[in-house]
Design goal:
This protein has 354 residues and is of the alpha/beta class. The chain is built from 15 helices and 13 strands. The chain is 41% helix and 16% strand.
């Protein structure tokens, strides 16, 4: 099918690199790349040093994806047979193919939240008795910031501090799936170090809003990263001349490019405001960052809605099991695109009431 125009709001994973990134790759001096497994790629080394500094950690590691980054973090913090605490709708629990169990030999115990932040009193009830030979020891607490399934919600530094105190009290390590941590930083106007100072490790994506075609970063102590590097190799993530990837990441971490995320947040708010004007029984979430959730009545066929939106050139995702559609703004989407998308969404909803 031919579209005059496509507005892709499925995810910020569809973000294309900027012209500056492509120019940097085109002008790359091939003598400045090397074998990263041997720690001989200067561009990767530069990227890892830069990322560690930004995160306020001793060291960092370039990995192929957020999923791989989370997994090497879990493996580095635990031993087979341990139990980890993860949020009920977290990416680690739902969207990473059960790797914690299959590869890490870990039990996962979930905690339920409204926006990613647990009740610590309720969480305390989930801590296993390490002295009981019948129970797997609880050793790791995980959180997600921003929280995808809760609509890009932010876990603020004070909340992370409380979770860190809880972890220390219970002898746990604390890992943060910070795939979109820069969105949290920009939206709250706080340095990213404020979000990372209370976690033992963090993973963040260079792809998604930062617009790189591939790659994520894991950061933590030097000892932790040494372990993570070995687990990365075990998982097939040892890359050779990875400088060609690092070039994108070095530009993505420039201050002016990180600040560009505000445009995505503004566009998400613009989309929210537009959808609220549509006379249709939908509930439009107030976005904190670049993710907008829209809830529909139970009798609406969301697959039908998405199909008709596709025909109009607007792409989005269903957030199951809820009756909810997710829209995500990103680099490449502008205000005019948002206005166009609102017009097409209104057309579909008015013409397809059931």
């Amino acid at each position: 099918m031919y579209f005059l125009r496509i507005i892709d709001l499925r995810s910020d994973t569809v973000t294309k690199p900027s012209p500056e990134m492509w120019t940097a790759v085109k002008n790359l001096d091939h003598s400045k790349i090397g074998d990263d497994v041997m720690r001989e790629d200067p561009l990767v080394n530069e990227l890892e040093e830069k990322a560690a500094k930004i995160m306020g950690k001793e060291a960092s590691l370039l990995v192929t994806s957020g999923t791989q980054g989370n997994l090497v973090s879990l493996l580095s913090h635990t031993r087979p047979g341990n139990e980890i605490l993860v949020e009920e709708e977290s990416h680690i629990f739902i969207h990473e193919v059960g790797s914690a169990a299959r590869i890490g030999g870990l039990m996962t115990r979930t905690y339920l939240t409204e926006s990613g932040v647990p009740s610590l009193n309720e969480l305390q009830l989930k801590i296993r008795n390490k002295e009981d030979i019948h129970e797997p020891p609880t050793t790791l607490l995980c959180a997600e910031n921003t929280h995808n399934a809760h609509g890009g919600r932010i876990i603020y530094p004070s909340q992370l501090e409380d979770m860190k105190s809880f972890s220390e009290y219970n002898g746990l390590r604390f890992h943060l799936d910070g795939a979109r941590i820069f969105n949290a930083s920009i939206a709250s106007n706080l340095p990213v170090k404020e979000f990372t100072k209370n976690v033992d490790s963090i993973m963040f994506c260079l792809s998604k809003g930062l617009s790189c075609p591939i790659g994520s970063i894991v950061a933590g102590s030097s000892e932790f990263i040494d372990k993570a590097r070995k687990f990365r190799k075990m998982l097939g993530g040892g890359m050779r001349q990875a400088g060609i990837i690092a070039v994108f990441g070095l530009i993505a971490l420039e201050d002016n490019w990180v600040k560009r995320l505000k445009e995505d947040h503004d566009n998400a708010k613009l989309l929210s405001e537009g959808l609220k004007q549509i006379k249709f029984p939908i509930q439009v979430q107030e976005p904190e960052t670049n993710i907008l959730m829209v809830d529909f009545p139970n009798d609406i066929d969301l697959n039908k809605i998405l199909s008709h939106l596709y025909e109009e050139g607007v792409l989005a995702f269903i957030e199951s099991p809820r009756k909810r559609i997710r829209f995500v703004t990103h680099y490449g989407i502008n205000e005019d695109d948002i206005a166009y998308a609102v017009q097409k969404i209104e057309k579909v909803l008015k013409n397809n009431p059931n």
